[in-house]
C-alpha cells in the first residue's frame, strides 16, 4: 500500500522547495578592470574639413574638366580656343626662371603643403578630449570646449578667499591663470589657488591629457 501526500497549491504554505535556476549576468568581453586610472589614449576627434575638401574638389574638377574638354575639342578637328593657345605659347616661350613661372610654382606648392597639413592633423583645436571610463562597453568619446573649461576654472578661482579678479586662458598643453588678490598674503593665495585649480581640473574637467598649470597672482589695485 502506497501513501500519497498531496501537494499544496503554488504560492501557499507547504509548497515544496524548488531549485531556482542560477542567474548569470553576461558581461561583454573586454580588458579586465585595473585598479587606478589606466593610461588614457583619448584623442581629439578629426575635423570633417568640409570647406577645404569642397574647394579642392571644385578646383580640381574645373581644371580637369576644362583641360579634358579642350583636348577633346582639338582632337575632333576643331581649332584651339584663345585661352588654350595663349597658355601653351606662354608655357613654351617663358623660361623657368621667369617671375610668373616661379610665382605659380610657389602658389601651387603652398596649396599642396596646406592640403597635406590638413590631411595629417585632426583640427578642432578648440575642443579638449575628456577621459571617459567605458568599463568594457565600447568606445566612447567626449570633448569639452576650451571656453567652457576656462569658465569652470575661473569660477573655481573666484571661490578662493582673497581672489578679487581672475582671468583664465586654456590651451591644449597649458592653462594660464592670472588672479588679482584683494586681501591676504599673495603667496598663501597662490598656494590655495593652485591646489583648488588642480582639484577642479582633476574632479570636474577630467581631461584625458591634463595640461600644465601656470598660476600668476598680483595685488589688485582696485
CA distance, first residue to last residue: 107 Å
Task: Bin the helical content.
Answer: 40-55%
Overall strand count: 5
Following the backbone from N to C, one meets helices and strands in this order, namely HHHEEHEEHE
Report the C-alpha radius of gyration, rounded. 35 Å
Mean residue pLDDT: 76
Determine the strand fraction and express it as a percent band: 5-15%
Low-pLDDT segments, ≥5 res: 1-40
Q: Give me the oligomer status.
A: single chain
Shape: elongated
How many strands, which pairing sense, and closed or not: the largest β-sheet? 3 strands, mixed
Please outline what is shown here.
By secondary structure, the protein is α+β, with helices and mostly antiparallel strands. It is 42% helix and 14% strand.
What does this structure look like?
With 222 residues, the protein is an alpha+beta fold. The protein has five helices and five strands. It has helices spanning 50-75, 82-93, 99-120, 146-158, 186-205, and strands at residues 127-129, 143-145, 163-170, 174-181, 212-219. The strands form two sheets. It has a three-stranded mixed beta sheet with strand order 3-4-5. It has a two-stranded antiparallel sheet with strand order 1-2. Strand 3 (163-170) and strand 4 (174-181) form a beta hairpin. Helix 4 packs across helix 5. The longest helix is centred in the N-terminal third of the chain and has 26 residues, at 50-75.
